[in-house]
Amino acid sequence: MRNKLLILAFALILLFAACSEQHGIAQRFVKNNRKTVVALYMPERLVKSNLRNDSIPAELADSSLQKQIAYLEKQIKVIDKVNDDKLLDIIYLTMKETLKDYGLTVEYWESENTQPDSTHWVIEIPRIEVTEVCNSEQFCGLIDYRKYCMDVPVDLVNVAAWFNLANDTTFTMTFTEQNYCNDTDVRFDIDSRNNVVAKVSCDTINIDGFYQFATILGKLFAGYCYDFMMNKYIDSQQDGRIDTITRFRYDPYERYFYQTQRDYLIEIK
Predict the structure, then answer these.
(1) Residue 194 belongs to what domain range?
(2) Per-residue model confidence as pLDDT tens digits over 13-57
(3) Which letter does DSSP use for residue 125 in this model?
(4) Per-residue DSSP letters for 166-186?
(5) Long-range CB contacts (within 8 A, 24+) of 27-34
(6) What is the DSSP letter of 268?
(7) Nearest to residue 19, comparing CAs of 230, 223, 243?
């Protein structure tokens, strides 16, 4: 037992030492990049897809093809209303302002005689895919220790983005995807006849909400790109084994670092 406790204590000491080392390297990165300039590039257009699988209701089963098509078109909430230029402008301007909060300046510094380096970055987003789908999601609840479940259709717009990043002569491709979806809640109850009923509340997605979501994406993308560069620097400076699962993130507003195992850009190798 004593040996096991000693091994555990030693492992905790090593973990604390590694985190302290990484924290110090991250602080150095933030300090050294307060005057970094970033060349930020967006795609010329979006890649948009409608992958909804709505069904024709029974009352329209015998109606004309034109009426069925009209019904299906009415189910589309966002994808047919997205203006490429407006969405890309929102993401670009929000990224630019957010990068400024990190101490960076968006400036097209590139020329024939210059290359990316530690204070001259390139953030290129070559492709953004926007896809609308309608999925079925299961909601469950307990009544008198019995579990009840119900499948509810959920409208969702997936935004997938690829980033080509460089702060040296090597570019790295990364990826992330985020979802804009219904805020759906299902509660199970017993009615006056002692039947179990499901009460569903849902905020429908719409184009205005999607443009607001684009502002969130711009902030998120800027932070992801900064954190990717920071973790790249940590990996190059630290001693010992590199943890590629647990990554550091930096909050420029509260000025603190934290760790995550899922909320970051995925490197494509």
Answers:
(1) 35-227
(2) 334 344 678 999 999 999 999 989 999 999 999 999 999 987 787
(3) E
(4) ESSS--EEEEEEEEEE-EEEE
(5) 27/257, 28/237, 29/229, 29/230, 29/233, 29/234, 30/103, 30/230, 30/250, 32/118, 32/119, 33/102, 33/103, 33/104, 33/118, 33/119, 33/229, 34/103
(6) P
(7) 243
What tokens does 251 get? Answer: 């909050």
Q: What does the pLDDT look like over 203-222, one tens digit per residue? A: 889 999 999 999 999 999 99
**Least confident range of 16-25, 44-53, 149-158, 228-237:** 16-25
Q: Assign 229 to helix, strand or coil.
A: helix
Predicted structure pTM score = 0.86
Is residue 159 in some structural domain? yes
**Given CA atoms 90, 91, 92, 93 in this order, what sign does their dihedral have?**
positive
242 belongs to a structural domain: no
Residue 268 lies inside a defined structural domain of this protein: no
Counting the structural domains of the chain, the total is 1
Please report whether residue 153 resides in a domain: yes
Question: Exposed, middle or buried by CB within 10 Å (0-12, 13-18, 19+), for 60?
Answer: middle
From 77, 266, 45, select the one nearest 177 (Cα to Cα): 266
